[in-house]
From TrEMBL:
UniProt keywords, alphabetically: Cytoplasm
Coiled coil: none
Primary location class: cytoplasm
PANTHER family: MTH938 DOMAIN-CONTAINING PROTEIN (PTHR15811:SF5)
Pfam families xrefs: DUF498
Species name: Streptomonospora alba
GO cellular component: cytoplasm
Domain of life, source organism: Bacteria
Subcellular location(s) of the protein: Cytoplasm
InterPro entries on file: AAMDC (IPR034096), MTH938-like_sf (IPR036748), NDUFAF3/AAMDC (IPR007523)
Name of protein: Uncharacterized protein
């Protein structure tokens, strides 16, 4: 699941357990960045609902040129964000937006119109 462009792909649709992304495809949880995206497999970094999104989860977004990052907390806001993740993003002066998934998609798609943005999206709980 990758794209060839340097723009950030748009989220086309969202429903419980399913996201469709232009040029990327369909997945349950998605990691998006300038130039493409892929399924977000929490097992890669040991992510869990608590403490939540880990610094290792956002590294790929930053490495791929994201100037802003959107962190989805799940459809019901049950996914946390580890304080170390916020510290990392603050230390790198990266603009961060955190919201429940539907709002996170709106924020991400708006930012993706004008700038390189990355996002982590959890489409359930």
């Amino acid at each position: 699941m990758t794209g060839a462009e340097t723009t950030s792909p748009r989220v086309l649709s969202l429903s419980w357990g399913r996201m469709e992304v232009a040029g990327v495809g369909t997945a349950k949880d998605v990691k998006l960045f300038p130039g493409g995206g892929r399924s977000w497999d929490w097992n890669e970094t040991g992510t869990a609902h608590d403490p939540g999104i880990l610094p290792a989860d956002v590294e790929e977004l930053l490495d791929r040129g994201a100037e802003a990052v959107v962190l989805s907390r799940g459809m019901h806001g049950r996914l946390g964000v580890d304080p170390r993740t916020r510290d990392l993003l603050d230390a790198r002066s990266v603009e961060v937006h955190t919201a429940e998934t539907e709002e996170a998609v709106r924020i991400y798609n708006g930012l993706a119109r004008n700038r390189p943005v990355g996002g982590l999206f959890h489409s359930t709980c």
